[in-house]
Write a structure and sequence with these properties.
By secondary structure, this protein is α/β, with parallel strands linked by helices. It contains 13 helices and 13 strands.
């Protein structure tokens, strides 16, 4: 089969070449992001490979289908950048990679947490300048702290297990707690209770309509004053303007994040020569209690090998007329097919009954309780 790889980087070429080209598939590497202007570049390619920064809305998918594309393979677990309903109408098969090395993201989560709690970036910079003073670098022990996990699927489960090893109490919110999470010693509680009780909050849930800006001026106000927030899931889970306010006011003492609301503009590009296009990101990066990485939580050799192997398997199975593993939608799906399992292993709907959009509330004057408490 012929595969057009959008947003192709050197690492994509390395791992995809190793997994796919030896099987006789032909690969066309495109540095461009997929959008309405670049979809024509895939004309004549039976399959396309997309990353999280590519946009596959109904108009883009229509252009791909008109150009002969029949298979859309995602190099990600998340699929909020793809209009699955439109793909089904157009007869396209869409696959993703929900099982690629969840350890990679979980371990990056812990790396961010330790770095911000123990002031590692500041210490590193000081020592390079010959300053070994520890004043201003005071951290705190993870042992004995309560960590709140929002989402306890595959990545959240691994993250929580690691934190239990540090001696943390893991308090989690997930609409459908798993036996594995309970057996790992997690305690489950309503959403608002997790935010109010945790010293550290770590996000591990999908970005769906009910979780967009899950953390906003109101819900950030429920946090313990001085809490630490880590986000390696999806940038759209947090209102970035409200996040800046929470950090500047001291509601949050520190932030570690690897994801952004505008993934296309903000991530995996060199903006050193000009002003960052995303102003809230610029404000965040300027704060001394913030550590931001360039969406590299997935970026391990093991994870990239898994992604390439999954892409290879999808192409081979599709070309042979077999059902593809990890199919999000295909021509065989009926309109009533249940939604696929959500990224990160969390509930596909991840429902919240909390009315968390109250723009008049501020982090400085938070409500003491949620308007309604989501069921466990």
């Amino acid at each position: 089969m012929r595969l057009a790889v959008f947003s192709a980087k050197a690492h994509d070429r390395r791992f995809l070449d190793a997994a796919i080209s030896r099987a006789g598939h032909q690969l066309l590497y495109l540095e461009s992001h997929l959008d309405r202007q670049t979809a024509c570049l895939a004309r004549g390619q039976a399959a396309v490979s997309l990353c999280v920064t590519d946009r596959a809305d109904a108009a883009v998918l229509t252009l791909l289908a008109e150009g002969g594309t029949r298979l859309v393979t995602l190099r990600s677990a998340g699929y909020n950048h793809v209009d699955l309903a439109a793909a089904r109408r157009l007869g396209l098969t869409v696959t993703h990679v929900p099982d690629y090395s969840p350890h990679a993201v979980a371990e990056h989560t812990i790396a961010l947490l330790l770095a911000v709690v123990r002031r590692i970036p500041h210490a590193y910079t000081r020592v390079r300048e010959g300053n070994y003073c520890v004043e201003g670098l005071l951290g705190f022990n993870l042992h004995g702290k309560t960590v709140g996990l929002i989402g306890a699927g595959k990545i959240g489960l691994i993250t929580g297990r690691i934190l239990r090893g540090f001696g943390c109490h893991v308090l989690a919110y997930d609409p459908h707690p798993t036996d594995a999470a309970r057996e790992a010693g997690f305690e489950f509680a309503p959403f608002n209770q997790v935010l109010e009780s945790a010293d550290i909050i770590s996000l591990h849930c999908p970005l769906v309509p009910t979780t967009h800006h899950l953390l906003n001026r109101t819900t950030l106000g429920w946090l313990k004053r001085g809490a630490v927030l880590i986000n390696t899931s999806r940038g759209g889970l947090i209102d970035q303007n409200a996040l800046v306010e929470a950090l500047e006011s001291g509601r949050l003492s520190a932030l570690g994040m690897d994801v952004y609301e505008d993934e296309v503009m903000a991530t995996q590009h060199d903006h050193a020569a000009h002003r960052h296009p995303d102003d809230p990101i610029s404000r965040l990066i300027a704060l001394p209690n913030v550590l931001v990485t360039g969406h590299q939580g997935f970026f391990t050799a093991e994870a990239l090998a898994d992604i390439a192997a999954s892409t290879f398997t999808a192409m081979t199975d599709f070309g042979a007329g077999r059902a593809c593993a990890h199919t999000l939608t295909s021509p065989e799906n009926s309109p009533n097919t249940p939604p696929p399992h959500a990224p990160h292993g969390s509930s596909p709907a991840f429902p919240l009954t909390t009315n968390h959009h109250q723009p008049n509330e501020t982090a400085a004057n938070p409500p003491t309780r949620s308007p309604t408490s989501p069921a466990n």
